[in-house]
Design goal:
- The chain is α+β, with helices and mostly antiparallel strands.
- 13% of the residues lie in helices and 20% in strands.
- The protein has 2 domains: 58 residues, no CATH class; 42 residues, no CATH class.
- It is built from 2 helices and 7 strands; from the N terminus they run H-E-E-E-E-E-H-E-E.
- The strands form 3 sheets. The protein has a 3-stranded antiparallel β-sheet, with no helix packed on it. A two-stranded parallel ribbon has the order 1-5.
- The longest helix has 11 residues.
- Bound molecules: zinc ion (ZN).
Length: 119
């Protein structure tokens, strides 16, 4: 077996979010994020490519107050710590009465919710 195959198999063991899609009759169906085959609701593994599936975001899709949760991934410097707006790649410099401050585009200054992956 080639290294690439082993790597791919490893990657597929990690749950990946199913993709919500619409067929040509405009009906919603769910698809494997790896091979795009249709999967049935709640399946834990794609029968096509063995990708382990996650349904977390789909289940959260309709919540009581009408909001959805979203996640973005970006890289931070190795010495970045949560709440360190100065080192944060998404912060920008704004102005207030006392001069310039690092502003958070997600309005999380002082209550930073950034979590690190692979910790
Ligand atoms: Zn698949």
């Amino acid at each position: 077996m080639q290294n690439d195959d082993i790597r791919l198999q490893l990657v597929r063991q990690f749950p990946a979010e199913v993709v919500e899609a619409r067929d040509n009759r405009n009906e919603v169906y769910y698809a494997c994020p790896t091979c795009s085959r249709a999967v049935s609701m709640g399946m834990d593994k794609c029968t096509g490519c063995t990708q382990v599936l996650s349904w977390k975001n789909i289940n959260q899709a309709v919540s009581a107050n009408g909001t959805r949760k979203a996640i973005i991934e970006f890289e931070v410097a190795s010495d970045f710590t949560t709440g360190n707006c100065r080192k944060c790649p998404i912060s920008y410099i704004g102005r207030n009465d006392s001069g310039s401050v690092y502003e958070c585009p997600l309005k999380m200054r002082g209550s930073c919710k950034i979590k690190f992956l692979n910790e």
